[in-house]
Amino acid sequence: MNRTRRDRATLAAIVWAVLVSQVLLYPGVEDLVAVLGAGADAGIDAGMWFLVAEFAAFVVCAGLWGAASDALGRRVPLVVAGALGGAVGYLALVGVALADLPFWVALLVRVLGGAMTIGAFSLGITMLMDLTGGHGRNMGAAGLAIGLGAALGSVVGGRLTTLDPLAPVVGAAVLLFVVALAAATVREGAVESAASDPADDPVSESVDGSVGDDAAEPGMGDVLSGLGDRPELLVPYAFGFIDRLTAGFFALVGVYYFRDVFGLSAAGAGGVLALFFVPFAVLQYPFGTLSDRVGRFAPVVVGSVLYGFAIVGVGIAPSLVPAAAMMVVVGVFGALVAPATMALVTDVAAPEERGAAMGGFNVFGSLGFLTGFLVGGTAASTLGYLEAFLVVGAMEVGIALLALRAVRRLAPGGIARTSETAAEPTEGS
After folding, report:
1. How many other β-carbons are positioned within 10 Å of the β-carbon of residue 293?
2. Whether the predicted model's global pTM rises above the 0.70 cut
3. In this structure, is the dihedral angle defined by the CA atoms of residues 427, 285, 278 and 162, taken in order, positive or negative?
4. Which residues contact 40 (CB under 8 A, 6 or more apart)?
């Protein structure tokens, strides 16, 4: 295994493990909020605010971690600190339950824990994004890590909930402690060495991988300022926002939907979520590589339309089996869209701007997750599950139709073949 592949695998494993720890809580969130003080009859609103609390911290604190990496000049210590802080946050949730404290205390702990966890997650992705070897390939690796983490977390989290509602919380804490230990072994110069390895970079990209202003995870003010300088980034940002919104929707409403409508246990709901996450994970790498070869337009635009209709299909399915089958379809189309959208960011941004550009994408993505919880939870509780699926599916189709011309202008005939990836050999050949 050459150096770039080894670095890519290590960083992807860190991202994967953080996602597992996060998603462990999702299948049993209904049971968890009950033992954390919300009460057994709290409904979807309590679960919504429990998830919103963490992602609100993600949005606010992602830029702070990037600024800290600038000031320190290193990333690995911050990944370790973020993982350790996240682990402590999960253990604090166990303390809230054992001490029978009010639910608002649990929400406060979620905010603080999320503020720490986003450091490990965000900086891990940024380091992965800077590697050479093809933007679609690198973002496909990121998507593979995220999807596999979500898939495993949903299955294992559901099983752990059947043992005890707090078991997934303890499992998440243990996993983040392991992440901290693993992150401490990562070479600080991993990105620099990958960028300087001529065997892995035949076109000599001008990305040095150093931790500078361009590599920081920006705050919202920085993102908006960057959009003023390069407004075309708004196109992949908008797609990223909606795509993450749908993921947040399934993480909350999907769980409650399959449990309330079809009477599934937490383990059953986790298994159904995995039907989405497994193909979403497994297909991201090949679909990301495909977008390097055929361009971004078809995966982004056509994939988004199909993805939106598949989401609606889950909501209108008459019984569990077709609903579960549609979850697989949703995962396939989601995998087609996600890596191409992330790769479009690096296609549009200049080499010296890619760190900040991807940071902006992550900020919009976190806002999308947050909005997915709020829109999905509110629509499901006030209108009903079917209406919630219709709203979210229409949003996915709508962004594809509204941005069709913009995507075609940014990626005419396959932008990937006109960039550095055209000269790259197929990795692993």
Report:
1. 14
2. yes
3. positive
4. 34
User: How far, in Å, CA of 393 to CA of 249, rounded?
Assistant: 10
The residue whose two tokens read 């996993």 is 175
CB 245 within 8 A of CB 379: no
Distances (CA, A) of 241 to 229, 338, 362, 367: 20, 11, 9, 7
Q: How many Cβ atoms sit within 10 Å of the Cβ of residue 353? A: 18
- What is d(CA 265, CA 254) in angstroms, rounded to the nearest whole number? 13
Helices assigned H by DSSP within 230-353:
234-249, 255-262, 266-282, 284-294, 297, 303-316, 320-348
State pLDDT tens for residues 58-114. Answer: 888 877 887 787 678 788 899 899 999 999 999 999 999 999 999 999 999 999 999
Give the Å distances, CA to CA, from 162 to 27, 64, 98.
10, 37, 18
The structure tokens listed for 212 are: 């500078």
Any residues with CB less than 8 A from the CB of 381 and at least 6 apart, and which? 43, 44, 45, 48
Q: Enter the tokens of residue 342.
A: 């992330």
Q: Positive or negative, the Cα torsion across 133, 134, 139, 141? A: negative
Instruction: Give me the helices (H) in 24-75, please.
Output: 29-33, 44-72
Nearest CA-CA partner of 94 in 173, 150, 154: 173
* Amino acid in the structure at residue 379: A
What architecture is domain 3-422? Up-down Bundle (1.20)
Cα distance between residue 307 and residue 394, in whole Å: 10
Contact 236, 345 (CB under 8 A): yes
**Strand, coil or helix: 188:** coil
pLDDT of residue 63: 74
**Per-domain residue ranges for the chain?**
3-422
